[in-house]
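Moderator note: this is an archived Q&A kept for reference. The question asked for a predicted structure of one protein chain; the sequence and the answer are reproduced below.
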Amino acid sequence: MRPYVPEKLPLNVSQWNWEKLINKVSSASAALAYYNGTLESMINPEIFLSPLETKEAVFSSRIEGTVTTIDEILKYEVDLKPEDISKRNDIIEVLNYRKAMRNAKEWLQRELPFNRTMICAIQKDLMAGVRGKDKRPGEIRRELVWIGPKNSKIEEASFVPPEPLGLDIWLDNLMDYLKDDSPETLIQTAILHAQFEIIHPFMDGNGRTGRILIPLFLWHKKRLKSPMFYISEYFEEFREEYSGNLLFISQKMDWEQWIGFFLDAVTFQAKRNAEKANQILHLYIEMKNLVTSVSNSPYVIRILDTLFSMPIFRSSDFISKSGLNRQTTYRIITRLKGEGILTTVKKPAGRAPEVLCFDKFYQLLNN
């Protein structure tokens, strides 16, 4: 199989079935706008939704064969680590995903450009200390690669990305296309993701890098208040359709099938994200009233923000995160445990602090 030669952007869309696509664009735009409205109703969505960011990292990594759960991630962060080394490596890959997303967000907040440098930095963060760390992380590949069964030869490949000597041309073309404000943003985002996966600019981590770019680009184009849009759950749930529709572009020159699938994914996942965000918001309001009556503390907002930012935590983490002193923290934790709001995951032992769980929020994240 010969290396694929991508289509130059912008695509020729004159033969597309725009009646069908416009309906899908309309549905996806409405769902995304509703979700964005939910974000705007939150005083600090980064606090409310930060555990969902971890969930997104879990699903995106799972598409690439990394098997772990949000429960394992949350416990790992409070030093409840699995003994199995391969399981630990899977967890580190997920944590790298979250770090890469946060660093890219900071990059754009500094009003730096959405460009190749940012994308290379994302991929480098993903590869830190995990599988692929020896494959020139953060650098555009210099070798021919192919996609197929493990240890397969190029003749058995389902797809051979462009040869390395042409990558600069295709990446520059993609970056130029993204600067154009005339295409409909959701269709432009769908083309961004697919073209990036077709170019396959890195030796490893292309899928995860490409999925991180989706919410970042929607935020960059001001379709979202925050890049906290979690689409990998849908892609993982419909993994065969996801990979199959991407493959159809190179096999059948069928961009419409992929774009229709992508718009359906945005519609469905935006509604699911909005529902989850509203559930979290309602729980926050419920807990605000309950914690106020239970704690009798003037620091209710600090307490709540801390609880919602880390559903499983060490008592020492609560002190540092909330900024409350030790005596006040332990008094509040004792009262919240007495009301069943917090439960003990691991009792204190020696110098090791108690590990606690905010049960209602934890259950909400895992449903």
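Archived answer notes: The domain at 296-365 is CATH 1.10.10.10 (Arc Repressor Mutant, subunit A).
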